[in-house]
Amino acid sequence: MIRNHTTGLPYLTNIEVEKFISLGVYVLKEYVEK
Predict the structure, then answer these.
(1) Nearest-5° angle of CA 24, CA 32, CA 9?
(2) Which DSSP category does 4 fall into?
(3) Fewest CB atoms within 10 Å of the CB: 12, 14, 27, 33?
(4) E strands, 1-34, where?
(5) What letter does residue 7 receive in the DSSP assignment?
(6) Nearest alpha-carbon partner for 24 in 32, 11, 10, 34
(7) Which tens digit of pLDDT belongs to each residue from 14-32?
């Protein structure tokens, strides 16, 4: 379990964390390239 203080969620599964990180990296790359 990973405590997430920013969203208030008690925990996220590893899969959810991986999806969130992947999405964040993708968005960051798109933002930097523009």
Answers:
(1) 20
(2) -
(3) 33
(4) none
(5) T
(6) 32
(7) 778 888 899 999 999 999 9
Q: Where do the structural domains in the chain lie, given as residue ranges?
A: 1-34
Q: Which amino acid is at 11?
A: Y
How far apart (Å, rounded) are the C-alpha atoms in residues 9 and 14? 14
Q: Tokens 């990296």 correspond to what residue?
A: 25
Q: What is the pLDDT of residue 16?
A: 80
* Rounded Cα distance, 16 and 23, in Å: 10
In angstroms, rounded to a whole number, what is the distance separating the alpha carbons of residues 20 and 7?
A: 13
Q: Which amino acid is at 25?
A: V
